[in-house]
Fold this protein.
Amino acid sequence: MQIKDGVNIQGIDIRMRPALIVADELWKRFGQELVVTGGLEGVHSAGSLHYYGFALDFRTRYFELGTIIDLTKLLQENLGADFDVIQHRSHIHVEYDPK
Ligand SMILES: [Zn+2]
């Protein structure tokens, strides 16, 4: 697992840990090393859970679209309903947001 330069994951909530573990394992299964491209830093939409340490972004640019769709589905299934997994153009966003 790599953390992209400039990305701050210090202060990420401990409840995000399963997302890192599951993503790391899935990325390996699909032949890539996981790269965290978004944490607490940066500018996000107002109310974004990134500001609270409840969201992470994972790089997907080395995958084909079909694989990205599969990964989004697998992450959601493995993490369960307390997490939201959202596919974006350049990354998959995962947040802890129990209903
Ligand atoms: Zn995000």
The two ends are 29 Å apart (CA to CA). The chain has one domain: 2-96.
